[in-house]
Design a protein that fits this description.
- This protein is α+β, with helices and mostly antiparallel strands and about 425 residues long.
- The protein contains four helices and 28 strands.
- The termini are far apart.
Length: about 425
């Protein structure tokens, strides 16, 4: 930023070599009576520097006419007159001197060095311009104070981050992992320094365990200044029941069942137990640590089985609902007859939990075919038997009629029939 012109005043001396003192006094006296200029031929810039670093002050002349250039401190003591340093402060060192520039460095800058520095050019009329040195002080300490070293899931904890002795006052930002949070800051001023404290209220859950909370400083004197604390959160167990056998299969009567209970928490659960909800645990159930085993399932085992786990924070559970299905069934092969052999296919579909029993489907077309064949066979048999009886009855009537056509009555017809008297008697007896 360009310097600001200011009327010149008497230049103070800061001491120097004894032989040059009369000359300096003469020059200073002349400056006091020469009319003051507006500094239009002088150029300089303001300087911002971090405490402890090096500040460089430059007094430049746009149109040089070999006039004398000198640099004065905020107390108007001469730092450099041309290339000579009257001031007994070795931190000031000449960087460059020419007819058009006087450049001076100031090492190990401190807060006391802050202020206006004057560039003077002894022309007719003389000119003066000033540059301002601003000293930045980064925070000397950055600390996070946490209300509880160990929090419980669901609690709200308080964290405080303090940035001490900075200039200007710093800005504090909060992060939990990669997520930025909002805190509340307070600023206290001590002399020329500022202390900032930011408060963060945070409700923690189990997902926050081991996550860093970061306090980061925004300050022109420093980059990436931050500190962090890792959250330690205790939480109730998280319980899960898994079926080891049958693996993703139906639980059928007569088959075994094996369940495993797993639990995670902080602290790690130490107490784990199995129970049957709303009923007694069957006597044939074997519980071994986190495992539950039923070697031979039956319908009486139906129910809800619960695994409970607890730690210092609390207790949690997970349930397993058991439904025992009927065992698989098979259909015997069909019978074989002399006329035809028909196999009746049967499809058995096993359903999983929530389905009722086993569904059987029968091919009704095949059954209808079998019935049709049997009916046809019976009809054929009836026709054969009818023809047989009809043929024998016709033969009997034919023999009876021989010799009877010319008889006057029934007795004569019988006597005249073929076979003679003996046969007639026999036939009479037959009809009697």
């Amino acid at each position: 930023m360009a310097g600001r012109a200011q009327p010149s005043g008497p230049a103070g001396s800061g001491g120097g070599a004894p032989g040059l003192l009369p000359l300096l006094l003469l020059l200073l006296s002349a400056a006091a009576i020469i009319p003051r200029g507006d500094g239009q031929n002088l150029v300089t810039e303001d300087v911002t520097v971090v405490e402890g670093d090096v500040a460089t002050i430059s007094c430049r002349v746009k149109n040089s006419d070999d006039s004398v250039i000198q640099l004065l401190n905020p107390n108007r003591q001469t730092i450099y007159f041309r290339d000579f340093r009257p001031l007994k402060d070795s931190r000031f060192q000449l960087v460059n001197f020419s007819n058009s520039e006087l450049r001076v460095s100031l090492t190990n800058v401190s807060i006391s060095d802050e202020g206006r520095y004057f560039c003077q050019l002894y022309t007719d009329p003389p000119q003066e311009i000033y540059t301002t040195i601003t000293v930045l002080v980064p925070p000397r300490n950055l600390v996070i104070d946490i209300q509880k070293e160990t929090a419980v899931e669901g609690e709200e904890i308080e964290l405080n981050c303090t940035a001490m002795a900075s200039r200007p006052a710093t800005t504090i930002r909060w992060f939990k992992g990669n997520k930025e949070l909002t805190g509340k800051s307070e600023v206290e001023q001590w002399s020329d320094m500022y202390t900032v404290t930011s408060q963060l209220l945070l409700k923690v859950g189990r997902e926050d365990d081991g996550v860093p909370v970061i306090c980061l400083v925004d300050h022109p004197a420093v980059k990436d200044l931050q500190t962090q604390r890792y959250l330690e959160v205790m939480y109730k167990p998280q319980v899960r029941v898994s079926q080891n056998y049958p693996l993703q299969g139906l639980t059928r009567e007569g088959e075994p069942l094996e369940l495993t209970c797993t639990a995670f928490g902080k602290p790690q659960p130490t107490d784990m137990r199995w129970l049957r909800v709303d009923d007694e645990m069957p006597q044939h159930v074997v519980v071994s640590g986190s495992n539950l085993l039923i070697s031979n399932l039956n319908k009486t085992d139906n129910g809800t089985y619960r695994c409970e786990a607890s730690n210092a924070v609390g207790k949690s559970h997970a349930d397993y609902m058991l439904f025992v299905y009927d065992p698989p069934t098979t259909i015997p092969p069909p019978t074989t007859t002399t006329t035809t052999t028909t196999t009746i296919p049967t499809t058995i579909t096993d359903s999983r939990a929530g389905e009722e029993g086993v569904i059987r489907s029968v091919d009704h077309a095949v059954v209808g075919g079998v019935v049709a064949v049997v009916v046809f066979a019976m009809l054929c048999l009836l026709i054969i038997l009818g023809r047989y009886f009809a043929r024998h009855k016709g033969t009997y009537f034919t023999h009876e009629a021989k010799g009877a056509d010319d008889a006057a009555d029934a007795d004569t017809a019988i006597i005249n029939a073929e076979g003679g008297q003996n046969n007639s008697e026999e036939k009479k007896e037959y009809f009697i």
